[in-house]
Design brief:
By secondary structure, the protein is mostly helical. It contains 7 helices and no strands. It is about 75% helix and about 0% strand. Helix 1 packs across helix 5.
């Protein structure tokens, strides 16, 4: 039960911050260790700005920050809804959905998409 509370609180916080925070289009400070040490973006660079843009309905802007952001945003939305359903005793709905769309393979496909977008970004440079 604690895992569902943790997931629910974490994803809720991510969505609230995404609505409230207005990051600049070009970051002035970066916390990314890979970018700071090599100068290259990491596979997830731009996701924070993209989430903030998506939370405000700015799809084009979000896609410029990170092409996989709508998919990752949707996955976070599913994680939030999944946690909520378990907390209110509707875990059987989650099991029905995950019979058709299992969570682990879905996450692995999204991670592969993020890595693929990252490699494509280097290829077109």
């Amino acid at each position: 039960m604690m895992a569902y509370w943790t997931a629910f609180v974490f994803t809720t916080a991510v969505f609230v911050v995404s609505v409230v925070y207005h990051p600049p289009d070009t970051p002035t400070v970066t916390l990314c260790t890979l970018k700071n040490s090599t100068g290259f973006d990491c596979p997830t660079c731009g996701l924070t700005r993209a989430f903030c843009a998506l939370a405000k309905g700015e799809w084009t802007r979000a896609l410029r920050f990170h092409p996989m952001s709508p998919v990752v945003f949707a996955l976070f939305g599913w994680w939030w809804l999944r946690s909520l359903w378990y907390l209110i005793g509707r875990g059987n709905w989650v099991r029905r959905v995950e019979r058709w769309l299992p969570l682990l393979p879905t996450v692995l496909v999204v991670v592969a998409g993020i890595l693929g977008a990252w490699l494509f970004k280097f290829w077109i440079r």
